[in-house]
């Protein structure tokens, strides 16, 4: 590479929180970026919804409301997609890749379902498709999984990858307030969107789990393959019970290599709120912070921690990808793409070994505990903890099981629900992060 | 890439803890490695000191005691250097790079002083020089700094990157035992070498700081540029004082961008045992675990945590590099090399703002505290905490300062040492990880 390398043209699609910061960095850090890339990065245009919105930081001639035309320009080498959603991003990215441009995107919803199609287009055109910012914001997770652990065998990826739900659960644990109240507070503080469904029902975390599982296990995992439960039914009583068990509750995205009795490997990808011991590294990840724990055969347990959302941190991840994609164009190289050679099948949730925490209201009379315990025993499920607190003629009974197939556990809960002595199943959560 | 890509030949130099595990992975994981590289990885030979030592896991014909001949073979594409020390590794690596072979090494001592020379040879030959395993074992640190943060501005890297000293300090904090006793115990458990100087005097941590600072700040930093103090003078009294201040003591490798009053940027790279608040993320990193905290302008604070040493975890990092180097050969690409375009000068330790913890024995009589405080005040150094515990006619006085130039702080300590009322300066340590 000589210092006379020709400029790399960059197009930004979308000027939300992240896009605004990406444009700022592209404009402010030209010297550093050029030195790191080996050629100048030149911003060719920014596609926005409405070019008439005042944007004093961008020269008006760079703004366009025609993203397709911007993507098609001959002097654009790298397209940064920050619009979000499936269409039109899917079309813009595919077009860009097919015409030999590299693409950087933070679009987890798109990637969760269409990485295969997009990676194939990138491979065909021999260009890069980078998406570090799609999972856990500024925290390097995709690159460590794809590159640093390329010579290892990943067993498990478990993370807190949604800031909204982590803010809500952290605040509920701290204040004792209920879910609705805390969600409203999160909305007031800007940590929850007007329609919080994608966050609180775990869709966002499931999309990220699909991306992480695909990469970690070199297989195709889409959002539909991810078992998903949200946090909207978590109560202050659950958090209080968790605390009594020296645990807290976190919404976890878990991607695990599970091995059948006959040695066949499958992938379990699942998102749900779970109890984790306070001593677990993820237990202290509070507020809008994210963290991902990776367990690999040789590396052992690694943890990556940082800011998982927000325009500025996410822009850092986007710009890391942009510099690497640009550098690859200068040096005619390419980063690794998604690979699905292992093609591991998905394990249905029922077959995955988990541990249950079941809280129920029961009649406070002799024989009830024996009857409840019998339902677990009949399905060969060991009980680790039982706590019963009497209250007049009713009692609150909490049972924590040992590990057993999730299907046997949920069957047991269904059987308990039908028992006369059980007035109400107040709560069913899983317990993660323990060795037994 | 077609599935018929020709094999990539690999040579391993050195069969210590790490080399043995690298050879095992190369031999056991051929299918996965081939799928990830896009071509088979073939082990051409392993250079050992004595080919007659029994090594049942390696076919005898692969062993050689002539590393130079192995490096020179035409069918070797990647050389994995795991001998350690400056020579002969320096010569072998240079020769390999000059003849167009990619190199993966875990040799921090060599890299701390010769990365420039070796990176130049790699750039000239358009091949890779990877060294993720040189810092913090299995924990991805080099790749995140070089690639993930390529579009950001790193302000600070602070880490616990030496397992031996972290084991000793963690054990001293836990048991109250003294340094000599704990070092002996570390030796018995295999966590300290027969000659522990490189670890306990901070040379190993300083080499890693030089590597981290070079990459983080795109500048040339060698081991000699790193200010260094070891842990051998840490006493149980220091750890007890630290605990009273809600702190613990860790050996830190700190690489910081410091800005002069006139706005000029310099690099401070330093290794010393320091008090850090118990609430700091590095405070809970115990035993042989390592962790690195990176603070960047846009990404904010990131933390990387995992196993920093040991043959198996370190081999994971080596193999990640091997797969990426091999993949680059299949796809004619190249990873980024060290870059020193920023060429920031080194800040002398005296100019770097730090905070001091000073423990001293003083005469227990009126006026002594005023006299001691006067020495700090005369150099414009604010005092944050004073603790005095009387004991007959003598008292133990602990002073924690606010941030001030290290030179002014050490001058103050020298002045205190000369005071009649100060019987003895028991301990001088720095305090890190606070915002003020």
TrEMBL record, chains A, B:
The active site is at 208 (proton donor). One of its GO terms (biological process) is methionine biosynthetic process. Keywords: Amino-acid biosynthesis, Metal-binding, Methionine biosynthesis, NAD, NADP, Oxidoreductase, Sodium, Threonine biosynthesis. It comes from the Bacteria. Residues 357-430 form the ACT domain. The keyword Ribosomal protein does not apply. The keyword Zinc does not apply. L-homoserine binds at residue 193. NADPH binds at residue 108. GO terms for molecular function: homoserine dehydrogenase activity; metal ion binding; NADP binding. Catalyzes the conversion of L-aspartate-beta-semialdehyde (L-Asa) to L-homoserine (L-Hse), the third step in the biosynthesis of threonine and methionine from aspartate. NCBIfam families: PRK06349.1. This is Homoserine dehydrogenase. It comes from Gordonia asplenii. The lineage of its organism: Bacteria, Bacillati, Actinomycetota, Actinomycetes, Mycobacteriales.
